């Protein structure tokens, strides 16, 4: 299901092909986040236009609303939202982390109250896979426990051991209780401790998942520590399996993590920042509400050929934003997603030509 087609000779960067039931994915790849079956403010046609290969949905949110039974009547999330390319779903582990006041963790799973109406529910590892199987997501995530930063060593060790036991239960249910031909990824935890990260990676590798995710990063730790933990973890995962860094990050993060050997990324940053007026360009980011754009007839980025840059000026986008016109959310989001996906395209091409080191230098030179 995954094949490395080119390794860089100067670093760990690599290009590959990940095959799924809804098509192939070229890696390294960035995945737009569509938490509730929609990438905020854009349509599936917009996603196709920016050349998105795969998007995310979230098990926790879709389970609560509209409900698994509703989506199951459509045969899964693809037909429900009219997206015919691959979908990855998170298991809900990060939501239980971010909504900790509403949850209680036990060996069996997570008991929680809905943030919508206070109703009570339980997610076990088996149920997390069962729900994702009904969603028919091409890539499913194991239920895991994510800890906040900082966390002490003993608590982190206990948590990762629980995550590993849950991973085995997820794998057994996926193998024995479903007829799914979709992929299930294990999630590495271990906080900011190198030996625990290694132990987690090696334990999950023994289970032999189709792919592996590295979780528990970008939870408040310094940037250099995040990169250090990724660098120490990636080599302990099987070479011939895709490696997915969850919830990361900035354009600079993506470049650095590709350099370390990561294959897949997701983050709300391009869409969320678009709604807040922060736009990414080849030369760094700009804030469209700034007064410097009042009379600017140019596009967001003169090197960009996205729909927004082909048709609208910075001055007009600033006007829309200051006027709180809803159109600006769509136009800004189209641009930011195009920027991220085009960045990944250029990274892939550089790796294939074994020019990623040169690409990385040029990437930073433009921001100097």
Features:
8-stranded parallel beta sheet, TIM Barrel, alpha/beta, 2 domains, 368 residues, 3-stranded antiparallel beta sheet
Task: Summarize the structure in words.
By secondary structure, this protein is an alpha/beta fold. An eight-stranded parallel sheet has the order 4-14-13-12-11-10-6-5. Strands 1-2-3 form a three-stranded antiparallel sheet. Helix 9 packs parallel to helix 13. It is built from 14 helices and 16 strands. The chain is globular. The protein has two domains: 239 residues, TIM Barrel (Alpha-Beta Barrel); 88 residues, no CATH class. The longest helix is centred in the last third of the chain and has 26 residues. It is 43% helix and 18% strand.
Ordered list of secondary-structure elements with their pairings:
Blueprint: E1 2-7, E2 14-20, E3 23-27, E4 29-31, H1 44-49, E5 55-58, H2 59-72, H3 77-81, E6 87-90, H4 93-98, E7 103-105, E8 110-113, E9 120-123, H5 125-135, E10 139-141, H6 153-177, E11 183-188, H7 194-207, E12 211-214, H8 223-233, E13 243-245, H9 251-259, E14 264-266, H10 269-275, E15 278-281, E16 284-287, H11 307-311, H12 314-322, H13 327-352, H14 356-365
Parallel strand pairs: 4-14, 5-6, 6-10, 10-11, 11-12, 12-13, 13-14
Antiparallel strand pairs: 1-2, 2-3, 7-8, 8-9, 15-16
